[in-house]
């Protein structure tokens, strides 16, 4: 059984005041919360169960999603009594994730094909695969390069930096759970750095389609503006 773990327990501080009332995964994109969109996408990608990790305003998430049957994707829950970080919740799920699984943030709006990501992950044989997106970041200042002394050797006015960034979507082999202590706080950067330090193969899957993390107010508003254009490509 192919499962996906959805992180839906954060307090969404960057989206306040919206998230004072709603947990971030229930923020609506037009008539549907982002979490419902994700669950419907997972169903069409062949995911057979979603485990939703809940914490902040957990009852609202659990009441809205129920058993997941109306979205076509069966849902179970993992509840945190205290924040465990972005990867720590996996420590509570060792017995529930015996096969290759997906893990993702509960605030990602993307046209990514999750089945294609899983196929790529299996073909390349790593312990983990991170979905990546190229993000251009404009810098609103002149950027200066110096030669190690006081002499300026380079000046670039308002450059745009281009980097591959994590989409907040991952494919994992179950043995990744051996690196996570149950009940311990752990964030994803620390987990990935531990895997690399131990010589594990961590792969990257570069995706150039639509992706937006709605964790900030500006991005949330952008997602609502984009929705009519991308909706036919969401697979729901």
From TrEMBL:
Keyword 4Fe-4S attached: no
Keyword Transferase: yes
Gene3D superfamilies xrefs: Spore Coat Polysaccharide Biosynthesis Protein SpsA, Chain A
InterPro entries: Mannose-1P_guanyltransferase, NTP_transferase_dom, Nucleotide-diphossugar_trans
Residues in Nucleotidyl transferase domain copies: 3-226
Keywords: Transferase
SUPFAM superfamilies: Nucleotide-diphospho-sugar transferases (SSF53448)
Any single Pfam family the record assigns to this protein: NTP_transferase
Recorded superkingdom: Archaea
Gene Ontology molecular functions: transferase activity
The protein's name in its UniProt record: Nucleotidyl transferase
Organism for this UniProt entry: Methanofollis liminatans DSM 4140
